[in-house]
Amino acid sequence: MKLLIKGGRVIDPANNRDEILDILVVDDKISKVDKSIDEEADKVINAQGKWVMPGLIDLHVHFREPGFERKETIRTGSRAAAMGGFTTVCCMPNTEPVCDNDIVVEFIKLKAERAGIVNVLPIGSISKGMKGEELSDIGRMSKAGICALSEDGKSVLNAGLMKNAMRYASMFKLPILDHCEDPSLTGKGQMNAGERAAFMGLAGISNDSEEVIVARDMILAQSTNTPIHLCHISTAGSVTLIRQAKERGVKVTAEATPHHFTLCDEDITDYDANYKMAPPLRSKSDREAIRQALSDGTIEVISTDHAPHHTDEKNCEFQLALNGIIGLETSFPLANTVLVEGGYLTPYQLVEKMSANPAKILGINKGNLSEGSVADITIADPNAEYVIDVEDMVSKAKNTPFGGMHVKGKILYTIVGGEMSVEDGKLMKR
Amino acid sequence: MFKGKDLLGLRDLSKDSIMEILDEARSMKKRIDNPALRDHTLNKSSIVTLFYENSTRTKTSFCLAGAYLGGIVQDLGVSTSSVSKGESLIDTGLNIDKMGVKFMIIRHQMTGAAAVLARNVRACVINAGDGTNEHPTQALLDMYTIYDYLGGFEGLKVVILGDISHSRVARSNAFGLIKLGARVTLAGPSTLISGSMRALGVEVTSDIKGAIADADVVMGLRVQFERQKNMPFPNTREYSTLYGINSDLLRYAKPDALVMHPGPVNRGVEFTSNVIDGKNSVINIQVKNGVAVRMAILKLLYEANPDL
Ligand SMILES: [Zn+2]
Predict the structure, then answer these.
(1) How many Cα atoms sit within 13 Å of A311 on the Cβ side?
(2) Least CB–CB distance from A271: residue in B116, B168, B200
(3) B interface mutation test: which of A265, A317, A322 has the most B CBs within 10 A?
(4) Biggest alpha carbon distance in chain A?
(5) Chain A residues lying within 8 Å of B90, measured CB to CB
(6) CB-based contact (8 Å) between A198 and chain B?
(7) Which of A84, A112, B52, B160 has a CB 3.0–4.6 Å from the CB of A120, allowing a cystine?
(8) Residue from A188, A206, A271, A276 whose CB has the most chain B CBs within 10 Å, to mutate
(9) What region does A210 belong to: left with phi over 0, alpha with psi -120 to 50, or beta?
């Protein structure tokens, strides 16, 4: 099977490339990347005017399986991933049971293989049952194939346990992706503390609830000389702390989500829980700091924090509504519209943040279009304009505030291991 | 003309609508003492009260208002019935909606609950207090009382004292009074007020004397420090020492300033007894005005929604 992608703008930061090139895929590998390849192929994609990128990688999704299948399954979630241009996604361990042992890891891998549309890499929990008391079976999970550790949804509050986890994980070269939040500072907060919360009569969540753990994590990363990856950074203060830590050589990386660089607390009206997430949508100036941090490289990854919930869990009292929104199918268009069109990122930087950098953090041979690499390729039309329609989404969940938003940038092809998962904007596997 | 299906708060109510309610309340007040004037304005419309939080006073006030206008009032004992069986607010609302109910009056411990109910049911929803958000009928009765005694709002200085950050009464009053041209000062200990409240257009201070100086209205809020971890304030004794209003402090206000309180008042905590029972106090008048204001709201909503 030969696939020829002709005349596209090949954006491949891992190989320091951004030019018009052809790509020849033979079976599951990239066989050749060159100027005008003349070869007979079973299939030719005319990619003129399109971006040809290494398959997008998302470090942060919730596929809810096992345990919460009414929200999403590995099957429906990975289809949403494919539609969003993602060839590899990492799923968080806050399932039921928690992914804290090799049996659950094997289960997720099996389900992902059966879903058979994108690469799904399980993330193991840091502590057993995500209770923050004792380490989970990190070594056995590593052997079973987890890609990282996380306690996403909360922080490991015991700093001693966190320090042990960082030292132990480094032995297996497992990155730790940390959700930074001190619940004693979040309190009963429902949205960002500030004028909007005062106006709405909702209890506020101050920026310090994130920042104290950001600071602590980086202090521990420095004292243990191990890497730390900080999830969904949302405040200007966190950005400053990360910038300072990088200057003194701390091995810290950070991610931002499309909702945190697109929306702010002023967008919350009428107690619509599709705007409720953790961390909350912050102020306009925090949002600007996140955009700047993406622009100057302080934040090197865009992750979706795809968090599906059932309609009943969102159409209810704001205080009872669960945190999070879906994000896989809107991530690329939002990043392109807000960050590239908005002048914060070049297309090259965008691909770094959505593919090359996440691969680097995971330490996997993906996120590049090198000859000989597995053919995970995403092709997008950066100029296609459309209005987001929630009903078009393939995720089982519909909890997103982005319906009706005008965006630019559409995923046309998602190629996973040389096979078409999405072709011409349509899902190829049911 | 008063419009809209629901009364959720004063944040989204226009100045004209507020004045329409206050003027209507004036004519309603006459009916309270004279049973001959009570009529069938509501034409046997059903009114259901859903009080997820107990408040005998507010509920009684609504029930009497409905009865005086010829409505059929029924309390859904939500604190004891469906909720304990785990039924969601929306499901409860949809159920009641099917029974030919015209008004739902909801008191709920969570901010936004009335709004969520309102957008899921056909009936008119009246917010009788939601979380730390709004308590519009209380604020309207407070405003009516001010209107009755002082004749208007333009340029008045109204100071509201106490646990401001958790007070829906303070918030509704602030939204309404500012729309009508009053100056509102919120005062309390630093852990119970937040500078971001200035977004409402109010002054925020911890300086009690400065707050009371030349005030036309001194409104106290009920102070309730439940025993909990990480309390924002040591105890009520410390509160009354620092923020309780006695006759010495009241002297800083204008001589004929109104002393108000949404009740139930803790004697010796928010106000000393001689302030509560003093010549400036209109606390007992407020209660009567509450029935009148609620009658006015029911009547105006009824007339604004003839198709329901
Ligand atoms: Zn998280």
Answers:
(1) 4
(2) B116
(3) A317
(4) 66
(5) 315-316
(6) yes
(7) A112
(8) A271
(9) alpha
Place of tokens 């590995």: A74
Query: Is pLDDT at A356 greater than 60 in this prediction?
Result: yes
Task: List Cβ neighbours of B223 (8 Å cut-off, separation of 6 or more).
Answer: B162, B163, B236, B239, B266, B269, B270
Quote the DSSP letter at residue B270: T
Mean pLDDT of A365-390: 98
Given a cut of 60, is residue A319 above it in pLDDT?
yes
CB B128 within 8 A of CB B103: no
Question: Taking CB atoms and an 8 Å cutoff, what residues of chain A touch B112?
Answer: 200-202, 271, 317-319
Distance (Å) from the C-alpha of residue B93 to the closest C-alpha of chain A? 12
Return d(Cα A419, Cα A9) in angstroms, integer.
Answer: 20
Cα–Cα nearest to A273, from B163, B110, B108, B264 = B110
Structure-block tokens of residue A104: 């659950």
A202:B112 CB<8 A: yes
Task: Find the residue in B nearest to A271 (Cα).
Answer: B112
Per-residue pLDDT reduced to its tens digit, A125-152: 999 999 999 999 999 999 999 999 999 9
CA distance A355 to A376: 10
User: Which residue pairs, CB below 8 angstroms and at least 24 apart, start in A142-146?
Assistant: A142/A172, A142/A174, A143/A102, A144/A102, A144/A105, A144/A106, A144/A109, A145/A105, A145/A109, A145/A121, A146/A99, A146/A105, A146/A121, A146/A122, A146/A174
Measuring CA to CA, how many Å separate A324 from each of A154, A398, B4, B269?
13, 11, 32, 42
Please give the DSSP secondary-structure letter assigned to residue A171.
Answer: H
Q: Are B128 and B54 in contact (CB under 8 A)?
A: no
Q: How many CB pairs under 8 A join A and B?
A: 71
Cα gap B7→B264, rounded to integer Å: 24
| Helix axis angle, B15-33 to B168-179, nearest 10° | 110
Q: Do B133 and A202 touch (CB under 8 A)?
A: yes
Answer yes or no: is pLDDT of A391 > 60.
yes
The two three-digit tokens of residue A164, written as one number = 């042990």
Inspect the interface and report whether the beta carbons of A315 and B112 lie closer than 8 Å: no
Q: Could you report the predicted ipTM of this complex, rounded to two decimals? A: 0.86
Q: Which one of B108, B113, B199 has the shortest CB-CB distance to A198?
A: B199
Name residues whose C-beta falls within 8 Å of residue B119's C-beta, 6 or more positions apart in sequence.
A270
